[in-house]
Amino acid sequence: MLLIDNETVGQVLTMEDCIAAQERAFDGLRSGESIHRPRIDLYAPGPPTGYFRWGSMEGANDGYFAIRMKSDVVEWPTDDAGNWTEEKYAVEPGTYCGLILLISTVNAEPLALINDGVLQHMRVGGGAAIGVKLLAREDATAVGMLGSGGMARTYLEAFACVRPIERCKVYSPTVANRETYAREMSERLDIEVTAVDSAREAVAGVDILASCTDSMQPVYDAAWIEPGMHVTNLGRRELPEAAMSRFDVVIRQGTAGVQMPQTERFQAERGMSPAAYLGGTSEQLQRIPPPNPNPGFGGDDPRFTDRGRGGDKPDLSALLAGEVPGRTSPEQVTFYRNVGNQGLQFSSVGQVVYRKARERGLGRQLPREWFLQDIRD
Questions:
Q1: DSSP label at 223?
Q2: Which of these, 153, 256, 326, 343, could form a disulfide with 57 (CB 3.0-4.6 Å)?
């Protein structure tokens, strides 16, 4: 049993391998060689102002199963400029708790515990790059990036793996953050990355538009979308409702939510959760932001989850199988909904990390007997 920390993940995992592992896993969904369970969250009253949230997702492919588990205190503050975001931490602001348990599907042996920070950022960026690879114009060279955090970094790195990216314009509300991003990513990728003063300026004249924020509300205007663009996302609420009418082609990564009737204790799109079980009194539940007020994007049945934001559109496995067309002309606007197969991303990329760590003798050995017992459960 290996304990693999973020530093080790950073040493062994390349973005190229991250993308390739996910492509293989996603391609197996049609045949059943790959399987996943979408993310489900559980909310429980905890701190006096925020909420405790437990999230998990599962997947299996090529002899490996993974469950990703994350433990957060979440809050939804609004700053003086009106920016409404989701903030989270474990123990104290600046520390986080996320783990991936990797298991063999051959003999049910627990193989590794992996810190999820680096792998999480890379698997999301790699997933977005698959959409770029399949849907963006071949000559796409310019990126408009909304957001300047860790995900925005892996998104741009991943895009550069599948398209000849030459320049990027980045906007986020904090000047220092976007300027630091521009400097770091220019050096890392050897391309022109420029910090700009507005979201509008970041979006204008680019080939690929990526929103990578923790915003609880739209971060750009749908009218800014231009012919020929490829659009992708990170957060569940950062997309403007009117954007759907601008997209000629919509492909979703996979099933993001669970198809269940909505009740007081199980709701879709509550807070930033695709599907959530809700604990707490009626008064405590008022702390959690209500369901997305603009589910739209092709679904109008409020009883079920995964109907908004393109949830009823073709998924990536259908595109890979040739069952639906992708981009058919340079003028089309394509949208890739980069959520859905999270559990499968962790099994596919997690196994790459595990194999490479073993090959290089990295990671901390834990006694396997700590995780086994002789009592039938």
A1: G
A2: 343
